Amino acid sequence: MRAFLRREIRFFVPALFAGLLLRLLFFFCCARVTDDSRFYADIAKNWLSHGIYGITNEGAIVPTLTRLPGYPAFLAFVFAIFGADHFKTVFVLQILADLGTCLLVADIARRSCAGEASRDRVTKAAFLLAALCPFLANYASVALTETFEILFTALALDSAIAGLDTLQSDNAASIRKFLLSGLATGVVILLRPDGGILLASLGLYVLVLLLRRGSSNQMRMSIARAGLIIAITALIPLAPWTLRNWHNLQRFQPLAPRYANEQDEQVPYGFNRWVRTWMAEYVSVEEIYWPIPGEEVDASRLPERAFDFAEQRQATLDILSAYNEDHSISPELDDRFAMLAAERVRAHPLRYYVGLPIIRVADMWLRPRTELLPPDVRWWEFNDDPQWSVLAVGFGIINLFYVLAALIGVFRFRSIRYAGLLIGFLLLRSAFLGTLENPEPRYTLECYPIVIVLAANGLLARP
Q1: HEC per residue, 336-349
Q2: How far is the C-alpha of 2 from the C-alpha of 5, rounded, in Å?
Q3: pTM for this one?
Q4: What is the spatial distance between Cα 415 and Cα 462, in angstroms, rounded to a whole number?
Q5: Can you say whether the dihedral through the CA atoms of 410, 411, 415, 418 is positive or negative?
Q6: Which long-range contacts (CB under 8 A, 24 or more apart) does 293-299 make?
Q7: Which residue from 94, 92, 120 is spatially nearest to 106, judged by alpha carbons?
């Protein structure tokens, strides 16, 4: 890849500069510090100033395990050098990291292209698609985990593929690549618990290689060693976090809790299950799911699929009316949600376990990725300012282009090396996302390096 970069310097420098300009545009116009960002920052500042990995609660610092330490550690590093809450530096470093992702995506595309004659143009196309991707550029100026998750996901996959490429020719080099892949996977997991899906994808691919016919015993031993190296190096970084939780909080918690709740915090499981019986799109996340508990909820915003018949509609409205009295979910109210959910699941199990998960995944993949931009969440109603409606439609078209181009790559998987690893990760992550009750489009961004690689190979590769 280095030799190719030097040879094609006249292409990569302008393309890199264009990618930088796009990211600077989002930096100056749309940089965001969200509520989650402030939560991460609070942990980072307490960790830095008091040596306590915790949150500020009524003036006291309370140890927490609701967020994994990857992103708070990055923020603490930045704050230690540039001062507390210096988010501009955070954004600049994330922009540089995102540009590094573009190079990794290009390298994955180059290694995965089976056709020698088309390898150069596939590499260039992948780099350009990554550099000019507005969705990656947007999140580079948001103080959330996405940029680094995407970077280290790309690094883990690129290193794993490089290790498999050199498995027979250079044993020492392949071991170094697998070590790097494992460490990068460990960083992904330390950023957010769903990073474990990457480790599962790598493990499943190694298992398939082991079971493949025609491999010699020596090759199988090398493949098994590769899987073991990746697994061990990915899980080792979790050890200090797990020991800390056990020692300080008397809780075995290798990751973060499913609902990011504190030890003594009530989780409204009944409410969450009820939401999964009708949730299908991101708009309901903003209008219903996020406001509960704590804010007034407009029951008229519920879609018709939230009710199966008139009596159930009235029961649902009664429960939400009771919630709106004090904006909290008591155990008794949560039981009412749970009974309503059980009734709906019994009546339509296929809808709950198959239909709605598929629709939620489709919404995450196909929705215009403007959740952090000014366009109204109900963009399809076109009741927004014209420029924001145009932006939403434009982002939707761009996203559709990336997805459709990647689908071409999926259908041409026989001409793409390591297609099983790449497509397997997409499928496994999508299946997991379907189980969530909050279909946020950002959860698919970790797949975008693979989307771009598949798109570049699908559009330009020739056997």
Answers
A1: HHHHHHHHHHHHCH
A2: 5
A3: 0.94
A4: 8
A5: positive
A6: 293/268, 293/323, 293/327, 293/328, 293/329, 294/327, 294/328, 295/327, 296/324, 296/327, 297/323, 297/324
A7: 120
What is the residue-level pLDDT of the chain in tens, covering all 463 positions? 777 778 888 999 999 999 999 999 999 999 999 999 999 999 999 999 999 999 998 888 999 999 999 999 999 999 999 999 999 999 999 999 999 999 999 999 999 988 777 889 999 999 999 999 999 999 999 999 999 999 999 999 999 999 998 887 768 888 999 999 999 999 999 999 999 999 999 999 999 998 886 567 788 888 899 999 999 999 999 999 999 999 988 889 999 888 888 877 889 999 999 999 999 999 999 999 999 999 999 999 999 999 999 999 999 999 999 999 999 999 999 999 999 999 999 999 999 999 999 999 999 999 999 999 999 999 888 888 899 999 999 999 999 999 999 999 998 888 899 999 999 999 999 999 999 999 999 999 999 999 999 999 988 866 5
- C-alpha triplet 184, 179, 234: angle, nearest 5°: 50
Radius of gyration of the chain (CA): 23
Structure tokens at 454: 């598949």
How far is it, in rounded angstroms, from Cα 219 to Cα 240? Answer: 34
